[in-house]
Write a structure and sequence with these properties.
The structure holds two protein chains of two kinds. Chain A is of the alpha+beta class. Chain A is built from four helices and nine strands; from the N terminus they run H-E-E-E-E-H-E-E-E-E-H-H-E. Helix content of chain B is about 25%, strand content about 40%. The longest helix of chain B is centred in the last third of the chain and has 11 residues. Classes of the chains: A alpha+beta, B alpha+beta.
């Protein structure tokens, strides 16, 4: 059973608050991988990572047919955040039953806390030629982490938890 | 339509990439590639150490698809996703993973998220790319 460390939780917040840009990696059910960078990231409890469902396309389609998913730190990596988190994800969209449960968290708790993420943590640090012009959140992706491994140079693949 | 990467794309890819592969039934694995060379307009070679390759070896042996994005600050500045099929050869302590690209996407948040770029002509792609960004990675 995974328990995210305090250092991991500090790294898994939005970059503007000292956190990280992360890659959300999914796959279709027949094995076509997909990788896309995500700015809105947070944790809940000791084993869940949250990502905003904003502008997700292939990622969203993949999660709907295959929950196997990875979140990997993209930037900064040089601060010792050489982590890959693997587990099962769901996209809790607006309209889910409030008591829908994903490995111990309820849809209402997630959407109440992170359902308006643009206003909760505006992307002030994102360069103007990269930031979106209008937020379009449709839900929150919740990754239930089951394994953590390293991508540190010389230690790639070593199981951390 | 064949892929031809722009000079900006090639420059950013060569700074380092996160590689994602998956088993035939969709279990993903990610590794970090630090030594990369664009060897043609649509082929990239990742020189992986044994540990870097060990993470993706099993999945790659049953399913050649590879998706990758640029690591570190390139994750912010180079909003591209590259996809293709890979083949690995071992050369001493290094594994050379050659990926023949067949799909290219924009991952910039907003109206261009998910836009497929390999359907554009190279002239259109260059213009689209340079209209959005001109910065190259620091050497």
């Amino acid at each position: 059973m995974v328990k995210l460390t305090p250092e991991m939780k500090e790294g898994l917040v939005v970059p503007g608050k000292g956190g990280s840009l992360v890659y959300l990696c999914t796959s279709s059910i027949d094995g076509k991988p997909n990788i896309a960078g995500m700015r809105f990231v947070d944790t809940v409890k000791d084993d869940k990572i949250l990502i905003s469902d904003m502008f997700l396309l292939k990622t969203k389609a993949n999660i709907k047919e295959n929950p196997e998913c990875i979140i990997a730190i993209c930037h900064p990596l040089d601060s010792g955040r050489d982590w890959v988190f693997k587990g099962k994800a769901i996209d809790i969209e607006y309209g889910f039953p409030p008591d829908f449960d994903w490995y111990g968290v309820k849809a209402k708790e997630i959407l109440d806390g992170w359902g308006d993420w643009h206003n909760k943590e505006p992307p002030d640090e994102v360069p103007p030629d990269v930031v979106y012009s209008h937020p379009a959140q449709r839900g929150v992706v919740v990754l239930h982490v089951e394994e953590v491994y390293s991508i540190e140079k010389g230690k790639t693949g070593e199981k951390i938890q | 339509m064949g892929i031809k990467l722009t000079d900006r794309m090639k420059a950013w890819v060569e700074t380092g990439c996160h590689l994602c592969v998956a088993t035939k039934n969709g279990s993903p694995f990610v590794t970090l590639a630090r030594n990369i060379k664009s060897i043609s307009d649509d082929e990239v070679v990742f020189a992986l150490s044994k540990d870097e390759y060990s993470v993706i070896k099993s999945a790659l042996e049953e399913n050649p698809w590879v998706a990758f994005g640029v690591s570190r600050i390139g994750g912010v500045r180079a909003c591209y996703q590259f996809k293709g099929k890979g083949s690995a050869t071992t050369e001493g302590d290094t594994v050379a993973l050659k990926v023949k690209l067949s799909e290219l996407y924009c991952t910039k948040p907003g109206c261009y998220a998910g836009l497929r770029l390999d359907t554009k002509s190279f002239k259109e792609l260059e213009k689209w790319d340079s209209d959005l960004w001109k910065d190259l990675p620091k050497k």
